[in-house]
Every structure is written in C-alpha cells, then in structure tokens.
C-alpha cells in the first residue's frame, strides 16, 4: 500500500467545476433538500394529527428523508470544495466531470477504465468504460485528482479503500 503522504482523505482536495456543472449540482442539492423537507412535513403531520399510518409507510418516509439529506450533504461537501471555472480554464491533467481515466485498486491490484458523469448518466451504457456518478463517494473523491494521485474512500460498511488514478484519456 502507499505511504500516508500519498493518500488524500475523502473530500479533501479542491475540485474545478465548469459553471454549468456547478449550477446543476446546486439544483440537485436544492431538490434533495426539498424532498427531505416534504418527507419531514409528512412525518410531522402524521404525528401532529395522531393519524394512523402503518409502520412501513413511516419507515419509508424516514428512509426517504435520510437519503435525501445524505445526498444534499454530499453535494454540499462537493460544492464547498469546488472552484467554479469557465470550461476553457479546466485543466486537462486532472480528473474532471466527463473524464475517462484508469483506476487502480491498491488493495486488489485490479485496474479498469472509469468515467465521471452526472448522476443521471450513470445508467447509460455506450462502451466498456465503467460510469461513476460525480456525487458518489468515489466519484466526488477523484474529481481534481491528477494521474498518480491516490484517494481513500470509506465504503458503506465502514472499511477504507485506496485507489490510484492512472492515465487520463482513452
């Protein structure tokens, strides 16, 4: 594995975003906050009127609220470390939205090609390149990383995984 000087903690580095990408992420954050607010209002209404709602409905509303808040937090974190730039000012030697690059798993030694895309484009399949959302933990972590840079990402289970960015481009 790499030494501590090589490893950047998740969400620690500056990300350069084009203006339209920053605006899209702000809209997505606002939509997530609105969804969370709607779920919160529903839960408050159910509690205030002492209406009967089955446990599954309440559980789904709580889960939906938590997911929306978590998404808004990821977007806030990404936007907080973003430097908004015009498209011509985005460097070609770091991972940016739309970049195709090699990813190397430092634990398993596996290497594959990835592309960072907006969340709505993750499901699109055009080629053999793995698509990753720009607001996923790994997608957000690699934005702004140059070739040879290492990022650490904590999985949902809590384990830490380290990846090295390889060549950028096809």
Radius of gyration, in Å, reads 19 Å
> What value does the average pLDDT take?
80
List low-pLDDT spans. 1-12
Roughly how much helix do the residues carry, as a percent range? Answer: 25-40%
**Intertermini distance:** 26 Å
Total domain modules: 2
Please write the string of helix (H) and strand (E) elements.
EEHHEEEEHEE
Number of helices: 3
Q: Output the CATH class name of the largest domain.
A: Alpha Beta
Largest sheet: 6 strands, mixed
What is the number of strand segments? 8
Fold-level CATH name of the largest domain: Chitinase A, domain 3
Shape: elongated
Please describe what this structure looks like:
The chain contains three helices and eight strands. With 170 residues, it is of the alpha/beta class. The protein folds into two domains: 4-14 and 87-168, Chitinase A, domain 3; 17-82, Helix Hairpins (Orthogonal Bundle), CATH 1.10.287. A hairpin with a 5-residue loop joins strand 7 and strand 8 (160-168). Helix 1 (19-48) packs antiparallel against helix 2 (55-80). The protein is elongated.
């Amino acid at each position: 594995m790499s030494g501590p000087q090589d490893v950047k903690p998740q969400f620690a580095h500056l990300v350069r975003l084009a203006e339209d990408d920053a605006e899209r992420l702000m809209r997505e954050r606002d939509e997530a906050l609105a969804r969370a607010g709607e779920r919160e209002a529903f839960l408050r209404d159910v509690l205030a009127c002492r209406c009967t709602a089955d446990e599954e409905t309440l559980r789904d509303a709580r889960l939906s609220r938590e997911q929306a808040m978590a998404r808004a937090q990821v977007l806030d974190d990404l936007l907080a470390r973003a430097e908004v730039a015009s498209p011509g000012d985005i460097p070609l030697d770091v991972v940016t939205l739309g970049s195709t690059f090699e990813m190397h798993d430092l634990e398993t030694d596996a290497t594959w090609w990835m592309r960072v895309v907006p969340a709505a484009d993750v499901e699109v399949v055009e080629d053999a390149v793995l698509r990753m959302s720009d607001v996923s933990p790994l997608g957000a972590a690699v934005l702004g990383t140059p070739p040879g840079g290492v990022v650490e990402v904590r999985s949902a289970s809590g384990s830490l995984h380290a990846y090295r960015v390889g060549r950028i481009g096809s």
